[in-house]
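pasting for the record
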Amino acid sequence: MEKKIGTNVSSGAEKVETVEKKISAADVDAPAKTTNEKTRAKKPSATAKKAPAAKKTAKTKQEAVKKERAAAGKRVEKAKDRAQKKEQKALKRAEIKQKKIEKKAALKAKRLARKELVAKKRAERKQAKIEKRAALKEKKLERRAERIARREMLKNETKTEKQKRIAREKKERAALKRRRAEAKEKARADRQKARNAAHARKASDKKHRREQKTERKQNRRGFGGWLAAVISLGVACLALSTVVTYGAFEMNGMQTASENGYRSTLYEMVSVSEDMDSNLSKLRVSAGAEEQRKLVTDVLVDAALMESALERIPVDQATGTDISAFVNRTGRYASMLLSRLAAGEPLTENQLKTASALYEINARLYGELNDIATHLDSGDFTDFIHGNSSDVGRRFGEMGQKMHEEGDEIFRAPFTGRGNVGENRLAGLDEVSSAEAQELLAGYLSAYRFESVEYTGETTAQDTVCYNFAMRDGDGVEYFAEVTKNGGKLAFFDAYRECTEKNFDLEACDNLAREFLSGLGFGDVEAVWLSDGGMVADLTYTAVQDGVRAYPDLIRVRVCESEGKVMGLDARGYLVNHHAREYAAELTQKEAASLLSPALEVTACNRALIPFAGEEVLCYEFACKYGDDQYLVYLDANSGEELEIFRVVNSARGSYLE
């Protein structure tokens, strides 16, 4: 289309220039011709007759030039109309293609849910058959024992006893027949009642789905109208981005189509993140298994759509990896929740808390994407598409780094965030006042030399009441700490200091953290997870007793690698759960290792106590390799059942588990 427009415009311009040249040539030749005519014949009457004819010819040529210019302008307008129609068709094709992708993803999720449901029903039927065969076998043995006892009884039965027995059995048979008839009638009535209830429930569900569909359409209409307006404005601006200089018209069609495609992908990401925001928001407050199953399925589909959109947006590799890692982990977490619900198990409080944390991270993602799309600058977006420095690229980078850090807080260390298991070990300790807690805090953190300490109130976390304190040192660095009301223990500590240089390695940070914990009374601990995220070392410790790692007793420490100073502590898990335990394992380490997949190569093994289904379970912790991938596998030390598997993921900003 571009070549055609260019040709038409050039042709019109050439014709105009040709006519103007002819006019100029005529004006130049006119004096020469007049001189020749005067030489041949000096007749005043002939000269007078030719003057009006020359004026008429010039006027005709000027009208021809005007007509040609008007025709060239019309051809340019027609070319503009054709370009606009082509852009509209391209946008419509992109929308149709996107709808197909969404439909395919929804069908895939539906097939997955159906497959899991079929597998569950198949397992239930198999178990029911096994139980039925066992019950029949047991009943058969009982009948056989009854027959043997009856034969023994009949051997010694007198005539009178026989008559009484026959009369009694007759009455019992009549009563049994009557009870069977009543039970049959009751079963028929129950079936009818159940059918009526099912019909009513089906009608109610159908009405509910219809109302939800209407609501979604109405909601979609509001956002869709805004989105259509923005897209239409973008298309119009791109389609009419022309430069007309002296009748010339140029437009790069392929570049325009490419920018439209990237814009469409950005708007798609906004729409999907908004939908995920809604589903996660509902999931964190939902209590019904059916509604939870529907919401988790929608989150799974949203994660797949977001991952597909991320592959089509031109972000740098690090940013794409960070955002994609969060989206993938959210999808896998939704898949795990869906499997649990399909098995008939309810979601735990900690799982709903994790869903709430995912909602908060995704809410920030949606807010950033929506702000980028709403205040999109055309020139800046073009720079972003071509890989040049741009505000859009900078914001995507900051977004990815923030999501990486927040996502790792959820998935980083083994069994992080599982909460207390069983009895709260702080509940039996004596209470301290806020003034006493402040004095204890000064002793715990005496090395920090605070200029001001302010009591800010109380909070309750993990069934533990804590006093809150805000501090500030001589450099103006702010700190926050929590001291337990029962026992006056330092449960949480955080510093808002920026670490910009790497002066201490992980080993040095580990030694500093152990020294800090020893000063707080946490002596018998072992490092189970060391991660180097930027300029801050994230170290996870747990209590060790008789060589067993007690993961419910977790302590997390953050050390600034610039100054070699502890800048964060979370010991709530240790304080709530730590106590002396007795361990007994029926399987040896060798027997447990034989139950692992033969594809795994064991590199290390430890005995570990893990929180599982609200209880503490003794396990063998196997560190394994499969090719270049690393895994942590936890097998029940008594039954050999595989309880947990974590995959170790190494990234530029540290390691985390998924």
